[in-house]
Amino acid sequence: MDFGKLSDISRADFALPTDHPDTLPLLNRYSKRYKKPRVYIGLPVWVNKAWVGEYYPVGMKEKESLLWYGKQFNTIELNSTHYHIPGPDTIERWRNSVPQGFTFCPKFPQLISHEGPLVSSLDLTATFCEAIAGLEDKLGCSFLQLPPYFGPKQLPDLEKFVQYIPESVPLAVELRHPDWFVDNVASLELFEVLEKFKVSTVLTDVAGRRDVLHMRLTTPTAMVRFVGNGLHPTDYTRIDDWVTRIKVWLDAGLQELYFFVHEPDNTTSPELATYLIEKLNKVCGLDVKPPKKFVQAVQGELF
């Protein structure tokens, strides 16, 4: 992910911002409806040749990547849907390739999110929602990534759009225009709309755009997109801070968490995701299954 990427992170302030003042009160309203929280940790891709022989078996065919990914993780940030709407056969193949309990989180197509007013694409939106509904119980939270030029003046367009999304398609919104985060009136109006229509927010943790970490939850579902820097030491300390914050949210009433780990080329994403899962399990008392590496026999080491 190139958004917010810095070539030099030495001056980046990676401190996790404090929660928006309305986040914990929102979660507290759900705390009495207690049920075991659903925690999903995953990556933005399932194909990576570097994982073969490490997280995937030696000799695995690329077409089997999703099958093996589903054995290692319980969710995927489904970015391919940003470029085209999958057909029924593709949806069925995806659904049948992963085990029970796995969820796909599809990104809305760019023809919807980036090509003019959202309300001008309602027919295409209906087609997309119908397509991903075919994932059935393996449909997680979809997300609408709005472009950097989608600002507060376009809130009425967003409000009309989210009303159109069927309740059977959970939705989170990612915002990038700086004005959402400096104009208090705009952000207040935005979050009121999202909360009213039960739309979640996406929190993006990336070096060069700390403002998008607004830390405002509008539903008891949190979606975090974490962008690391090649397993730099700050990747781990940032994850530690997230684990501490997630525990606070879970204790307050968070019902569902989606956390996606990005790294350059995503080669080392599984390693950092494993660290996150093990920390969450220990600190929050969860039982998320971490990925397991394949142990390869080395010639000459039998004795």
Report on this model:
This protein is of the alpha/beta class. It has helices at residues 23-28, 65-72, 88-97, 110-113, 122-133, 155-164, 179-182, 184-196, 233-252, 269-284; strands at 38-43, 75-78, 103-106, 142-145, 171-174, 200-205, 221-227, 256-262. It has an eight-stranded parallel β-sheet with strand order 3-2-1-8-7-6-5-4. α9 packs parallel to α10 (269-284). It is globular. 36% of the residues are buried.
Question: Strand arrangement, largest sheet?
Answer: 3-2-1-8-7-6-5-4
Amino-to-carboxy terminus distance: 45 Å
Global geometry:
globular
Work out the number of β strands: 8
Topology as a string of helices (H) and strands (E): HEHEHEHHEHEHHEEHEH
Q: Count the DSSP helices.
A: 10
Radius of gyration: 19 Å
Structure classification:
alpha/beta
Query: If you average the pLDDT, what whole number results?
Result: 95
Summarize the biggest pleated sheet. Answer: 8 strands, parallel
Low-confidence stretches: none
Q: Could you write a compact summary of the structure shown?
A:
The chain has ten helices and eight strands. With 303 residues, the protein is of the alpha/beta class.
Distinctive features:
303 residues; alpha/beta; 8-stranded parallel sheet; 10 helices; 8 strands
Topology:
Blueprint: H1 23-28, E1 38-43, H2 65-72, E2 75-78, H3 88-97, E3 103-106, H4 110-113, H5 122-133, E4 142-145, H6 155-164, E5 171-174, H7 179-182, H8 184-196, E6 200-205, E7 221-227, H9 233-252, E8 256-262, H10 269-284
Parallel strand pairs: 1-2, 1-8, 2-3, 4-5, 5-6, 6-7, 7-8
